[in-house]
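Structure tokens please, single chain.
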Amino acid sequence: MVAVKHGTGCAAEYFSIRIESSYRIKLPKQVLRHLDWIKGPESLTGFLLVINPGRCRLLSEADVRSQPTLQAIRDRLAISPQAKMDPLEFEEEFSITSTLRLMQISIAPHLEGWRFTLPRVIAAVMQIQAGETEIAGLLAQGYVEFWTMQTLRNSFAVPLADIF
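Here you go.
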């Protein structure tokens, strides 16, 4: 289960990202200084954790290994599909898609920065159109998150009196 906390956290920085036609996302330089695990000359393994249909978080392999729930989801990814069930028995939708909420990605150096390809399933859930959609990047609780503009707009609907 994903915990949603109402707290004093704030985004130290906001950045706008245009999704390339190949679904690639270039990580802005100002973001990379907050991600000490993205370094070196080789591609790295990272993960995108879908928090809700309009928001996902970039995680390192160490982040996933250190969190038991995320490690359990990752372990489920490694299990081969099970044998067929009775055709009239159905698993809950959220159970079937739980492994799609944590997607492994490759983050690669490119020119003077780093980039990764957004998995198509996450793009579909977030209603991202390659080459057309702009998303918001935020630094939140020490992580980089990617939000749809609709999610960002919706976050402003809460009155300030309810926040402070």
